[in-house]
Structure formats: structure tokens, C-alpha cells
Amino acid sequence: MTANKKKSKQLKVTLVKSTNKKLKSHKACVHGLGLRRIGQTVELENNPAICGMVYKVNYLLKVEKI
């Protein structure tokens, strides 16, 4: 049985909290996602690497599926 569900191919990620006084690895994840400033938004493809980074710092981000 095949499901014809429409998978979300992109994520819209916005930085909503500062990375000041956060773990070095969390800062690196935010930087790796391409986010530099609070309020900055980027659109990224939905793959396991990006999902792992988003999961690690989800308390700093707002994520929407496109």
C-alpha cells in the first residue's frame, strides 16, 4: 500500500531567541542553519541533517513546514 501524502520539502526556520550564554555546540548549529540575527528567517530543505540541527536547538527557533 502506498500513501500519496504530500511531504513537506522545505522548512521555514526563524531565530526567535538569542544565542548568548548558550552552549558552543548550540551556537554552531544555529550558525550552520544560516541564522545570524534574532528575527532572521531562512528556508531550508527538509532532510535528516537539517532536522537534527533544528531538533537540537528547537528552543531557540520557530519552525514552519512549507
Key phrases:
alpha+beta, 27% helix
Characterization of this structure:
- The chain has 66 residues and is α+β, with helices and mostly antiparallel strands.
- It has a single domain, classed as Ribosomal protein L30/L7 (Ribosomal Protein L30, Chain: A).
- Helix content is 27%, strand content 24%.
- The chain has two helices and three strands.
- A three-stranded antiparallel beta sheet has the order 2-1-3, with no helix packed on it.
- The longest helix is centred in the middle third of the chain and has 9 residues, at 24-32.
- It is globular, with a radius of gyration of 13 Å.
- The model has no long low-confidence stretch (mean pLDDT 92).
Query: Ends: how far apart?
Result: 26 Å
Tell me the name of the CATH homologous superfamily.
Answer: Ribosomal protein L30/L7
Number of domains: 1
Total strands: 3
Rg of Cα set: 13 Å
Overall average residue pLDDT: 92
- Principal-axis shape: globular
CATH architecture: 2-Layer Sandwich
Runs with pLDDT <50, length 5+? none
- By CATH, the topology is Ribosomal Protein L30, Chain: A
